[in-house]
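User: Show me a protein chain along with its predicted structure.
Assistant: Here is one chain, sequence first, then C-alpha cells.
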Amino acid sequence: MANNMLIYRTYLVPIRIGRFTPQADRQGSKERSMRKHLIFAGTLLVAALLFAAPSKADSVMDFSLTGSGLNVTFSLPQTITPTYASGGWAYVTNVVGTLLLADPGPYTFGTIDFATSGYGGMTDYWSFGSTGHTDPTTHVVYPGGELGLIATGLFTFNSNGTITFSTGTWNMGAPYFVGATTLTVVDPPGVSTPEPTSLALLGIGSLALAGLRRRKSA
C-alpha cells in the first residue's frame, strides 16, 4: 500500500499595513503642489497687470479769462452742484478768485454766474460786479465781487441738479472792456489710480507668492 504523503507549501503574501510613501515620492508631490500654486499666483499677477484699468480721480477744470491787461484764473470740479439755479443761470458761491486788471485792480470775487445765454439772448461775454450777490429766493447775501461768464455750450444742466462744464475756448466780449478776451476751460491731466479689482488681484498674487517663498524656505 502506497504511503499517502501530504505536502504542505507555504506562500509568503506581502501585506501592506497603512500607507507607505517613499521619501522621493513625497518630495516630488510637494514640488508639484508648489509649482501649481506658483502658476496660480503668477497668473493672478499677470491678469492684474494686463487688465488693470487706471481710473482718474474726479476731474477739476482750470478756467482762465485773459485779455489786454486782464487775467482771471480759478478751478472748479467738472461736475458741481451750484448754490442755486434760476432762469438758465447757475450761481456758484464761496469761490476764492481774483480779477487782475492793469488799471484799476485787483478785485476779488466770491460768486460766479454761469450761463449759456444772457440777457436779450446775448452770449460769449463776461461781466463783473463788485457789490456781491443776493439770492432772490432766500435773500441770502453773498458778499464780495461777482464774476459772470456767459458762453455757448459752457456747461449743461443734469437731471440731478448738478452742472457739468465743457472744455473749450471762447472769444469773449464785455460791454465795458476794450480788447480781445479769451475764456479757456481745460481738463488738466490727473494722476491715475488703479481700480480696486486690480489692487485686489495684485494683493492676492503677492500674498500667494510670499506664502510659497516661506514654505520653500521652511
